[in-house]
Write a structure and sequence with these properties.
26 helices; 689 residues; three-stranded antiparallel β-sheet
Length: 689
């Protein structure tokens, strides 16, 4: 029986890279893939696929950014004067995400997307329970160590969600709806941030109503210190524990999702299963009385007609040489010989530079936001403060003053202009500032991208958005230096909100989408995981940079340095997206009834984009800093030459004839009828097969 199912033992193993022209697929499989693409493209935006992916992404965003809500409460209860504890928690959460992205990206390509889909949510659920129940035991367990361990495990589950949700959404989407589906899933990231803030706010208000938290003067008076700690300790546990609820709901649907037919056909070499699972999700195509399901062994064809299932013999096809997934030879051919490392470099570096700035602004930015909103300089801790004394002589404020041997404001107190704020008032202010500055702008940016996803050229817009963010950061830094700690500080707040809008309207969303589109099916999850892991490494760098500046740079306007520094990373992101990423769409011209041509953007299919670097080069695309610069330089020369020709009445320095070739470096530019075709020699070669 095994011999019938697998005539060649190698067919038991996954099929690897198919080549830029899909020559690794037998003719029958090529035909089956075209039929699968036809069936997928008959559909538009799919609620089932979106709901399954978006629910998990919402859960993971909630749990990741819940740190902005809980760190102040954790500091209040467990480490009121140790600022490095928050750094440790964020560092290991992000490190866990790196592990999850790399590990699950690889496993999803090797064993199947849906075999892993749901396991990451199990990790999130278990770790959420672990975090929410963390304690010191009978005084002999390190709370920070146990808490950090569970956050690391949670980070693995959070990281795994990125490649799985992105690739499953991409592969199940039709070509026309792919960008809309992916951006709709990514919209759940800012929504998850906002939900975490709102849950924290509602829990805080509930505890205040139940225990008169505001009247206890928690934080600035030690009279009710133990009662306050007990109440505040319960707040962060409820906030974290709530993150398991959507995960439990989402996991139910994930175990009933199937691998997309493209993966089942191209990698698993099971065309029958591919068609069956596709029609389970989308149904059989209309106007087709018969549905054909090729068998997985290539020898039998099942034809469903009039409710009966007939089994008909099909002549075997000659076996072509099969490249094996994750074999050294296949990895070499894909990344080195065919130079697809260009794509991976582009997606990884753009995500890295993006996350340096994005997480520098979005993760544990309580002190940053308070500084941006401040309308006065920091208020010194002196006896002039109304909270310095209390009727019961139990004020905690004198013990903070360095003149009394104190260590300054506690870490939960992030607003140096309001040292008399209680923990209740501090949490309210932090929530208000985050929602108005970050969440609303981010949601608006992501929603706008969903609307315009198919109307803008994605690769060009990624480069442009990095460039715009570079300018915005420079402007924000300049505005901050001009109005910091004055009544005009709202100007900086507006600029930061615009930055967050632009993040999600451009680079933050696109760095998630593009890696799910441009890589072939056999390595799509792996490459998306590597790209996302590079981004999380960037976020670790951001956390370290911000912590280092806050700890070592004593200037009262040190936040301005952060803006200017992050502008540099945005400029580098623009450079890498410009040089190393392919065009996702093409411009096509449609004829109108009056005979005119109307230009529109058409999205390339995953099969076209899976041709990789060589396939893009054949179409005339150019990659690499050196080659891109040569093309841009020669376009400028060409334009200057045309202007001279028009002004002088003859051609200057451009050669003669309608078609001519000019060489610069390793790039040939062939001009025919005003169109520049690019042929790269030396650096870009089509290797012999």
């Amino acid at each position: 029986m095994a011999g019938r199912m697998y005539p060649d033992p190698e067919r038991k193993r996954n099929r690897g890279y198919l080549g830029e022209d899909s020559s690794g697929l037998p003719p029958r499989d090529l035909q089956d893939r075209q039929q699968l693409r036809y069936e997928l493209d008959l559909n538009s935006w799919n609620l089932r696929i979106w709901g399954v992916a978006a629910s998990g992404f919402l859960t993971d965003s909630y749990n990741l950014f819940a740190t902005n809500v809980i760190l102040a409460t954790l500091s209040f209860v467990y480490f009121p004067h140790d600022r490095w504890c928050g750094l440790i928690i964020n560092f290991f959460t992000l490190l866990g995400s790196v592990v999850g992205q790399l590990l699950f990206g690889y496993l999803a390509d090797k064993y199947g997307r849906t075999k892993l889909y749901g396991i990451e949510l199990v990790l999130v659920i278990v770790s959420t329970i672990g975090v929410a129940t963390t304690s010191t035991g009978y005084g002999d367990i390190s709370f920070l160590a146990l808490f950090t361990f569970w956050r690391f495990v949670m980070g693995i589950g959070i990281g795994a969600e990125y490649p799985l949700s992105a690739v499953i959404t991409s592969e199940w989407s039709s070509t026309s709806s792919r960008a809309t589906m992916l951006s709709s899933v990514f919209l759940m990231q800012p929504v998850g941030q906002a939900v975490a803030q709102l849950v924290g706010l509602f829990v805080l208000l509930g505890e205040d109503r139940a225990h008169r938290l505001h009247d206890l003067r928690c934080g600035i008076d030690t009279r009710h210190e133990e009662e306050c700690k007990k109440i505040i300790d319960g707040i962060w546990r409820i906030v974290i524990g709530s993150g398991a609820v959507p995960a439990i709901l989402a996991i139910i649907f994930r175990f009933f999702l199937y691998d997309c037919g493209l993966y089942t056909l191209e990698v698993k070499n099971k065309p029958g299963n591919a068609f069956r699972d596709t029609q389970r999700v989308y149904g059989a195509p209309e106007n087709e009385s018969n549905s054909t399901f090729p068998s997985s062994n290539g020898y039998m064809v099942q034809t469903r007609a009039n409710g009966d299932i007939l089994t008909l013999p099909s002549p075997p096809e000659p076996e072509s040489a099969i490249s094996l997934q994750f074999s050294l030879a296949d990895l070499y051919n894909f990344f080195i010989r065919d130079k697809n490392w260009y794509y991976l470099l582009g997606t990884s570096m753009t995500w890295f530079y993006l996350d340096v700035s994005f997480y520098g602004f979005s993760l544990d930015n309580r002190g940053t936001l308070s500084d941006l909103w401040a309308t006065t300089d920091a208020v010194p801790l002196t006896p002039d403060l109304w909270c310095w004394n209390s009727p019961t002589n139990t004020s905690a404020v004198p013990s903070w003053a360095q003149s009394n041997g104190g260590r300054g404001l506690p870490t939960w107190q992030t607003d140096a202009t309001q040292p008399c704020n209680t923990i209740y008032e501090t949490l309210i202010e932090q929530t208000k500032q985050y929602l108005l500055t970050v969440s609303l702008a981010s949601i608006a940016g992501s929603a706008c991208f969903v609307v315009f996803a198919n109307r803008i050229p994605r690769r060009e817009w990624l480069t442009a958005s990095f460039g715009i963010l570079t300018v915005l950061f420079l402007v924000t830094g300049g505005v901050y230096y001009g109005v910091a700690h004055t009544e005009g500080s709202w100007g900086t707040v507006v600029c930061v909100a615009v930055c967050h809008f632009m993040f999600n309207f451009g680079a933050n969303t696109l760095t998630f989408i593009i890696p799910a589109e441009i890589f072939p099916t056999c390595y799509r999850c792996t490459c998306h995981g590597i790209s996302a892991a590079a981004g999380k490494l960037g976020s670790i760098v951001a956390v370290l940079i911000v912590y280092g500046i806050n700890a070592g740079y004593k200037s009262t306007t040190k936040q301005g340095l952060v803006f200017l520094l992050f502008a540099t990373f945005m400029a580098l992101g623009a450079l890498y997206s410009w040089a190393y990423l392919p065009d996702i769409q093409r411009i096509v011209h449609d004829s109108t009834p009056d005979g005119e041509l109307k230009k529109r953007l058409e999205t390339r299919s995953l099969e076209e984009l899976g041709g990789g670097y060589l396939g893009a080069v054949v179409e005339g695309q150019v990659f690499g800093m050196r080659n891109k610069w040569a093309v841009m330089n020669d376009k400028v020369r060409l334009r200057v030459g045309r202007d001279r020709k028009l002004s002088d009445g003859n051609e200057v320095g451009m050669g003669g004839g309608d078609g001519h070739v000019r060489r610069r470096g390793n790039v040939d530019h062939v001009q025919r009828g005003g169109v520049v075709n690019v042929v790269v020699s030396g650096t870009i070669e089509l290797p012999a097969r």
